[in-house]
């Protein structure tokens, strides 16, 4: 299967900005894509893993590439756990609004209000969430990046 889409999506544009080093909230380059902090930090430390090259969806990848993408996604989750004090990580891959492979990685904390602790992230009003900014989130971005750099070198490569 061909890994790239015929039309450009917001994911394509974000990947291009990452390649140029111009993406806001850029965290790291991984074997299968780019990690960026979300434009809206609905949970501090919320990241996306953007497939590069851009692919339609997870099942459009060959088995080794697919396994590596999922491994990279889990490593982003490990970095978020280590960097935020979260008690768990929620993962989501949809591609319905932006039909290109990307994964949402959300830290979840014990300190969340009980009324919303079990809610999925899209139940929140994202317009009320702080926008990513280097001044507010730069130190967190650096911690996540340092973890990924340290542990991705130790991870077993499943895909070149």
Structure description:
The structure is a single chain. With 160 residues, the protein is of the alpha+beta class. It is 32% helix and 16% strand. Helix 2 (63-84) packs across helix 3. The longest helix has 22 residues, at 63-84. The radius of gyration is 15 Å and the shape is globular. The two termini are 18 Å apart.
**Cα end-to-end separation:** 18 Å
Strand content: 15-25%
Q: Enumerate the spans where pLDDT stays under 50 for 5 or more consecutive residues.
A: none
CATH class: Alpha Beta
What's the overall geometry?
Answer: globular
Helices and strands: which structural class? alpha+beta
CATH topology tier name:
HIT family, subunit A
Rounded radius of gyration (Å): 15 Å
Per CATH, the architecture is 2-Layer Sandwich
Domain unit count: 1
- Strand and helix order: HEEEHEEH
Largest sheet entry? 5 strands, antiparallel
The number of helical elements comes to: 3
Count of beta strands: 5
What's the CATH H-level homologous superfamily?
HIT-like
Order of strands across the main sheet: 1-2-3-5-4
Helix percentage: 25-40%
Features:
alpha+beta, 160 residues, five-stranded antiparallel beta sheet, globular, HIT family, subunit A, 3 helices
Sum this structure up briefly.
The protein is 32% helix and 16% strand. It has helices at residues 10-19, 63-84, 134-152; strands at 26-29, 33-37, 47-51, 88-92, 102-108. The model has no long low-confidence stretch (mean pLDDT 92).
